[in-house]
C-alpha cells in the first residue's frame, strides 16, 4: 500500500524505503492465518524497522 504525504507528524515519518522514496511514510502490518485471512492490522511509524514489528504484534494478539 502506498500513499504520499508532504509533512511529517507523529505517525508519518521519513524512513527506510525499499522503493527509495524520500517522503514521509507509514507502515502497515498484517497478521494473517495460514490461509491468508487477516486476523489483525497494525499501523506503525514510517521510521520503524520492519524487524521490530512482529514481536509487539504477536504480543498484542
UniProtKB/TrEMBL annotation:
Protein name in UniProt: Glyoxalase/bleomycin resistance protein/dioxygenase superfamily protein
Question: From which domain of life does this come?
Answer: Bacteria
Amino acid at each position: 500500500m502506498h500513499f504520499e504525504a508532504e509533512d511529517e507528524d507523529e505517525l508519518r515519518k521519513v524512513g527506510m524505503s525499499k522503493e527509495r522514496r524520500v517522503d514521509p511514510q507509514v507502515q502497515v502490518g498484517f497478521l494473517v492465518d495460514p490461509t491468508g485471512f487477516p486476523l489483525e492490522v497494525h499501523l506503525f511509524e514510517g521510521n520503524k524497522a520492519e524487524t521490530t514489528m512482529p514481536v509487539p504484534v504477536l504480543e498484542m494478539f
